[in-house]
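To whoever is on call:

I kicked off a structure prediction for a single chain this morning and the downstream step that reads the tokens threw a length-mismatch warning. I double-checked the sequence; it's 209 residues and nothing unusual in it as far as I can see. Pasting both halves so you can look.
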Amino acid sequence: MRTLSSFFERNRNWADRIKKEDPDFFSKLSKQQNPEYLWIGCSDSRVPASEIVDVMPGEIFVHRNIANLVIHTDLNCLSVIQYAVEVLKVKHIIVSGHYGCGGVKAALDNQEHGLIDNWLRNIKDIYRHNHEAIDAIENEKEKVDLLCEMNVIEQVANVCHTTIVQNAWKSGQELAVHGWIYSIEDGIIRDLDVCITGPDEISKAHRLK
């Protein structure tokens, strides 16, 4: 019970399989990481970044939290963004939400959930600013899914409003911020047609001189 032996066995099988395909894979991987992508996603166990886009270890730098939020007081998330942008020099930041997100559902149900309610207030603010469009939908699932999409779009904006990203653009660094959403029901990622590549594409109120 304490050792979770099945995980160690699966790990050995996985490592053996990788080494059969590429004997030098782990040797090369251990020397450096050079990903072009930062993935900001939800902590939901059904949405593992590398698996759903079918890439190998080392290709995506990942940050995950409940409901894939980018909050300007969250030093954890900001530290990840800074390291990815300034040290790893990623070219793409992908904010990926998913339909049926439990965090988004919880933000809509007006129930008390404990400490997490403080975190979910950020989603409630998105609902408050868009309540007419959301409340016009009668189907509860569709209502949640629309807010999931709106949440991704808002977090893309939050990424772009950081001094980290704006300073990268100012220095001429190639960097695009994308908004995607994933469906657990069919395993397909949908592009929300949100891609910001420079300060001219964000609101004037958030642009740094």
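Update from on-call: the warning came from a stale cache, not from the record. Cleared it. Sanity check on the structure: Strands lie at 37-42, 60-65, 92-98, 176-182, 189-196.
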